[in-house]
Target: ornithine decarboxylase
Amino acid sequence: MTTQRILDFLATRRPNGPCLVVDLEVVQDNYHAFEKALPQSRIFYAVKANPAPEILRLLAGLGSSFDTASVAEIEMALEAGATPDRISYGNTIKKERDIARAHEFGIRLFAVDCVEEVEKIARAAPGAQVFCRVLTDGEGAEWPLSRKFGCVPAMAVDVLRRAAALGLDAYGVSFHVGSQQTDLAAWDRALTDAKSVFAALAAEGIVLRMVNMGGGFPTRYLSDVPTAQAYGEAIFEALSKHFGNRIPETIIEPGRGMVGNAGVIKSEVVLISKKADNDNLRWVYLDIGKFGGLAETMDEAIRYPIVTPRDGDAVEPCVLAGPTCDSADVMYEKNPYPLPLSLTIGDEVLIEGTGAYTTTYSAIAFNGFEPLRSYVI
Model:
């Protein structure tokens, strides 16, 4: 997971404090793997996963499109070289003035999940294309998504019917099967709902043309995950099952799967202690924690691989925690993390698979700790 290029960078630059290092060669390889796995689908990189300008410029040059969640992310994608027709405003919760600003930039593709959002778009971006997000259960995902986004299929029919009535282009349906989704059948279940929306509206003369199959494509942490090719084959089989030889346009929105395995965080052991003389459980404190970029350890959902200079020595489980004065800043306690007994204060460790959802989750100076620094090589 840690490439030689990253090791060489850390050895020569010796950056002080915790930092993320992302290898662009891995990002490029991941992009080509998605292209090969789903050649008929347009790739919209989820900017929120890691918006580093170097990553966006690389992907724009490779031909990627971009899934954005705000006007700021739209501006980032445009600055990286993407044209407006390669940008989707994929957040279903938007201020009307932000919709108008996106429309001024030339953005024409918007996500919705309720009639109220459709009405805002009709006022601020007349004639735009809209796709309605359908709720999914997220079963099989290590980082499931809540009911915050999406609506039931029956409501999606109402939403898109209203969009057409207001002069918008009722373009299609979207779903997200949950982040770090390892169940290949998850897309089949979601496509069942998407097809039902297509069929209901077709009966009314409203012909949808696109399915946005979202993200969910995983990166490898402590366990192996299926390859991009395996996902591609399962998804194509599900599309054929539900749509026959009339498969609509499709979009995928990889974020974690595009950049997760390209990044490594360098961290330092600040303290190793126990809570009582007869306590066998060590507490290992790093100089990075939930507020420094490892927010996805919440509920111990994502368990990152950790490489130490003492690997090969005897290990015992320990509680792993961050450096801040907040009791929530504990990464792994319910399921303690096995680390070498010989690990000592001052040792540097590498937290792998951290290219996605780390810098963007890093707090701004909580407890005076600076945001997670990032290097892209």
User: Anything to note?
Assistant: The longest strand covers residues 263-273. The chain has a mean pLDDT of 93. The chain has two domains: 24-260, 261-376. The CA atoms of residues 69 and 91 lie 5 Å apart.
